[in-house]
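Listing S7. Sequence submitted for prediction.
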Amino acid sequence: MALKSAPARTGLAPNGMPWIDQEILRDVRIIRRNLSGREVPPYNRKGDRNFGLLLPDEETALRLREKGWNVKQMKPREGEEVGGYVIDVEARYGGDRPPKVVLVTEKRKTPLDEDTVGMIDAAVITKVDLTIRPHQYDFNGKKGTKAYLKTMYVTIQQDALDAEYEDLGREEDVNVEVVDEWSR
């Protein structure tokens, strides 16, 4: 997994906290997917779109935590000594900077919008490359950094029939004359 930072900014952010740059992460896993915004009490209010960005190793987690990202360590699973590291990421639509999300198959890239991004929740994903941008907050005595999705390319495992017929175009691209056989 390659980790690439944008050119570093120095100094302080507008809220007086040290500046944190956006991060580009390649070939990562996303867990707890809820890009459809469904309600999952007590964890998720209806309309909140988010997922967990599972970091590949402790070194990456510590590097991002040192930069100021809110990296959490999960509880170890049975048989594991140490739990994985995750950053909670929000995909916010309706603002002035909605995320760019693209679904990738063997032959096609399909941009997803607020109405279609939820299909990722159930997809069999083979690869994710993404950029997260920070939002630093200082509210009611709490300071921190929230991660927002900026860009994400999601490569999915494609069904054999979907792959075979993918080049034929989409339904709305095909003009079909509907004839009622009973009215002849």
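Caption to Listing S7: primary sequence and predicted structure tokens for the chain studied. The two ends are 63 Å apart (CA to CA). The domain at 3-159 is CATH 2.40.50 (OB fold (Dihydrolipoamide Acetyltransferase, E2P)).
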